[in-house]
Design a protein that fits this description.
alpha/beta; Rossmann fold; 2 domains; six-stranded parallel beta sheet; 9 helices; disordered N terminus; HAD-like_hydrolase_sf; phosphoglycolate phosphatase activity; HAD-like_sf; hydrolase; HAD_sf
Amino acid sequence: MLPLLPKSKSVIFLDLDGVIFDSYGLWDEVIEKVLALANISYTQTIKKHLWRLNMIESQAYLSALFAKENLTYPEKKTQQLLEEAYQKVSLMPQAVETLDDLAEEDFLIYAVTSNYDDLAKIGLESAGVLQYFSGSYSCIALGFPDKTEDFYQAVLETEALFDKTIFYLEDSTRHLKTAQKFGIQGVYLSNTDNPQDNQEQAFRTIRHLKEFTTIVKEEMND
């Protein structure tokens, strides 16, 4: 971990999937391939149900679908397909420019993800943006099923960030609400490809990544 930084250093938390990684379709493709191994169609019903679950719950749900066919869920094969996919993951439009702008403004940037830690790091490295991040935190790697209060508490404690101003870009209002309990200032990235897209008035909402940099600069100059 980095040494304790000056108190003036402000912090950015960035979700990865759907914010930095253009990975919604990637997951659909992998799950479709996995289900095909059991001759199960990847229906809209299954897709919508998976969107409501965290990673641990999703694996249990998929395992149950395979069990109905008297088959064992191919966990290793799924992991292999995901690793291959994240080695070629695309970035969201304006992702590099936004990261570059934030780095130029001397913000300390952290990835906070519900994804598996190895997939997050494979994606960041293969996409050539790992160098922008001072750290990457996966709730699963820290032993939490989702981005719970305990997860955010652990990140803040580990990096000694309690006295820092933190801006957080997410595509989940649920996660923003949890982080808000720690005084973290949330911005919601709306995406029509997100089945749970929900523009709540509780958070500033943007549709393009570059808008986030503008908001952060405005807030810091107030």
